Amino acid sequence: MILHQSFTITLPTRIQYGLGEVKKLGATVKDFKGSKVLLVIDPGLVKAGLLCHFTEALEQEQLPCIVYDQVDPEPGLRLADQAYALAKENGCDCVVGAGGGSAMDVAKAVSILLTNGGKAADYLGLGLIKKPGVPKIMVPTSAGTGAEVTFTAVFINEETGSKGGMNGDPLYPDAAILDPELTLSLPPKVTAYTGIDALTHALEAYTSTQAHAISEMHSLAAVRLIAENLPAACANGGNLEARAAMLMGSLLGGKALAMAGVGLVHAMAYPLGGMFGIPHGLANAVLLPYVVQYNLPGNMKKFADLAEALGQNLDGLSMREAAQLCVDALFDLNADVGIPATLAELDIPVEKIPEMAQIALTVARPVANNPRKPTLEEVITLYKQAHSPLI
Predict the structure, then answer these.
(1) How many Å apart are CA 306 and CA 207, to the nearest integer?
(2) What is the pTM (predicted TM-score) of this model?
(3) DSSP state letter for 76
(4) Which phi and psi (to 5°) does residue 255 adopt?
(5) Domains of the chain, each with CATH number or no CATH
(6) How many CB atoms lie within 10 A of CB 28?
(7) How many other CB atoms sit within 10 Å of the CB of residue 80?
């Protein structure tokens, strides 16, 4: 199998991992020649009193800082443009993204806009960014998106209501600082949503048609870490061992995503965010078991591998039986961490499903990566199954 693989990997992000590592933020900014920082931070972190962790680390190195904290859970392009205007007005030459994927995506976009100009909408797509951005440093405070090591920034286009991403190597962060202590205050629901989001990255990267030997190692390691530690992190947010393992799992899932891409779960989750404001991790989590059930014929062996990584005992089972355990394990894990079982529980109107399916199939790269090639009718059926499984 490896003999016939061909791939190119770009992983330029410097990774700093460890307890208290956020205290080195100022030194890291200086390593990349930054002198004035735009700090893009989740407003929840400000309300929780965590802003000081970042500002004090910058003050220790006498680095001035402008704070932008108007980030939404599902950010629109307007936020990236607003933050860019603030950074440009204040002469910022470095951007720090602190929080979940939304804050980090806005920070990535600002970095690119500071050197390329224009508006965020100009760069939606693949390969449209011509110049490297200013130095950008990501500090994730949730264990989910892996945005600290990916070349994507995802936004809602307010004009169309659709969700799409900037994609390209210039979006890779220059550095990522992963401090497990920063994740301790994450509420159980957000821990669950972001944790299953990270699991979805790893699982879809593993079964992607673009997967290869190196991405697969990252994927399986991430799945094991998340399956073993997410329930504990949700049950007791102060469990630092579980929090640390989840942050590592999210990182590895992000690296797998960057190398191999994601699949149909993500394509189908985008309309839920764009049309109804459902948080991305929650949308992925609800859809994941249903889409995996559909995908099983596309690669039974890999889904059996995933079942084992999820903690299932495969002794004496056929390949088909082992693969089916992957689906069972995902439903069980969702139930353990309080994820709703259906789209109906998210109040998604069933009459919108055909429109959602059409939008999902326009998310070209994830659909192309999927191990089974879906038709419009099949995507409609999948949404219906996820909405009302017993009907």
Answers:
(1) 9
(2) 0.93
(3) B
(4) -65, -40
(5) 2-183 (3.40.50.1970), 188-387 (1.20.1090.10)
(6) 24
(7) 27
Give the torsion through C-alpha atoms of 385, 387, 388, 389, to 10 deg: 40
pLDDT band (50, 70, 90) for residue 160 = confident
d(CA 176, CA 136): 9
For residue 1, the model assigns a pLDDT of: 62
% pLDDT > 70, the chain: 99
* 37-41 and 65-68 beta bridge pairing: parallel
Query: Which DSSP category does 212 fall into?
Result: -
pLDDT at 36 over 80: yes
Residue 181 DSSP code: G
Partners of 273 in beta bridges? none
Q: Look at strands 175-178 and 14-17 and give their pairing.
A: parallel
**DSSP structure string for 91-136:** T--EEEEEESHHHHHHHHHHHHHHHH-S-GGGGBEES---S--S-E
Strands 152-156 and 163-167, bridge-based pairing: antiparallel
- 181 by Cβ neighbours in 10 Å (0-12 / 13-18 / 19+) ranks as middle
Whole-angstrom distance, CA of residue 152 vs CA of residue 378: 28
Per-residue burial over 242-260, b if 16 or more Cβ lie within 10 Å, else e, is bbbbbbbbbbbbbbbbbbb
Cα–Cα distance between 141 and 54 in angstroms, integer? 12
How far is 355 from 120, CA to CA, in rounded Å?
26
Instruction: Indicate if the pLDDT at residue 5 is higher than 90.
Output: no
**Residue 320 three-state SS:** helix
E strands, 221-327, where? Answer: none
- Measured from the Cβ of residue 261, the count of other Cβ atoms closer than 10 Å reads 22
Report the alpha-carbon distance of residue 66 to residue 94 in Å, rounded. Answer: 11
**CA distances to 2, 62, 90, 267, 304 from 372, in Å:** 21, 53, 49, 13, 16
